[in-house]
């Protein structure tokens, strides 16, 4: 992410006191805070607890909000969804509200984020359907109907590609992954890489540099170049 791009501000709250948001067991002291998430179709604003050493503790991330405001909604009849890199849970909790009978797998390497996500899901009334787990605790044969992610670009390209491919392979043939990535954090090169590796990428929207990417298995006839439907506004 452009972690190499020195001029880029810490758009995604990448570090708290020198510690990356993707540390497995953050050592930083705690600073409990609350942020509010407003979801279309959900009457009450959702209050989410946050802390130091998790992603975007001061407010729900702008990219995440774009994904939730303008991205694809789950089909309410789906049974299994995933939020890959759940942080303190805004996406997983939104999915659980919008797909009221689905089980939502919320996966994160950061144990502090996982605990916040569990607590936040319970407080939002969806804790019984949000399964918060570390990557190693995801069953190897888990299949998900669709997945959403504001992915951890700062882990580096190789780790990011491995993570995405692992999860894309859990989708059925017609299933999709819905991602948000900022252009300064490599959205366009990620879309190209995915297209070169057999995934069809639809750049559905763009806002203030954030791109919404829908990713599906490409036709077996060959990989497709990314389709650009983004309209900047
Ligand atoms: C950009 S943040 C998004 C967090 C949250 N979804 C949100 O929108 O606020 C990416 C998250 O991915 C997590 N992460 C990093 N590597 C991961 C991995 N291999 N598997 C799952 N999550 C990972 C990070 O700890 C971080 O919480």
Commentary on this structure:
With 233 residues, the protein is an alpha/beta fold. It has a single domain (15-228), classed as Rossmann fold (3-Layer(aba) Sandwich), CATH 3.40.50.150. 23% of the residues lie in helices and 25% in strands. The protein is built from five helices and twelve strands. The protein has helices at 62-70, 90-98, 111-123, 157-168, 187-196; strands at residues 15-16, 19-20, 33-37, 46-50, 80-84, 103-107, 130-133, 146-149, 176-182, 199-207, 210-217, 227-228. An eight-stranded mixed sheet has the order 7-6-5-8-9-11-10-12, with helices on both faces. Strands 1-2 form a two-stranded antiparallel ribbon. Helix 2 links the parallel strand 5 (80-84) and strand 6. Bound molecules: S-adenosylmethionine (SAM). S-adenosylmethionine binds at residues 12, 21-22, 55-56, 61, 64, 84-87, 90-91, 107-110, 113, 135, 150, 152, 155, 163.
